[in-house]
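We both want to read discrete structure tokens more fluently, so let's practise on a single case. Would you supply a protein for us yourself, any chain you care to pick? Would you write everything just below, so we can both look at the same thing?
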Amino acid sequence: MFNPRLVQRLSGASILGVVALVFFVDSLDGGRWPVGVSGQTNPWSMSEVIQPAVLARELGKGLKPQIVCVGVGALYRDAHISGSAYSGPASKPEGLEELKKWAKSVPRSQRIVLYCGCCPMDRCPNIRPAFQALKEMGFTRLQLLSIPQDFGRDWVIKGFPVEKAR
């Protein structure tokens, strides 16, 4: 369900005229994508990024990957992808530990989709440590939800399935 208050909060201070640049890295860097504006490299490949419309379509067909929000609790409580788990911000040691604790009992072949949505993914402080930690734990079907702007604009406004935390 569309929540205008959430969208306003998620949109925050607006784009402020800043255009996030995404650089595609050539084969010398192993085909990794995207490289963030600040120049950090990412632990995922292009094939490990899933677009919001694709995930929403899969959810509509009853496909149920494990979806985990690794972002800010207030945003998760306001609205999150239907059926997603919450581990806390992976940029904080306690959030990353909670994610690892959750993952211990999950089969390494389970498909997992991570997302945050606090900001554009090229600047997100939470997705890189979360993705890297699960990769290091041996997960073989790990994906990252592409959030080029924020969760409100890239998921909520588009009418994809959301729910509120209880």
Observations:
- Residues 4-14+43-163 form a domain with the Oxidized Rhodanese; domain 1 fold (CATH 3.40.250.10).
- Residues 56 and 160 are 6 Å apart (CA to CA).
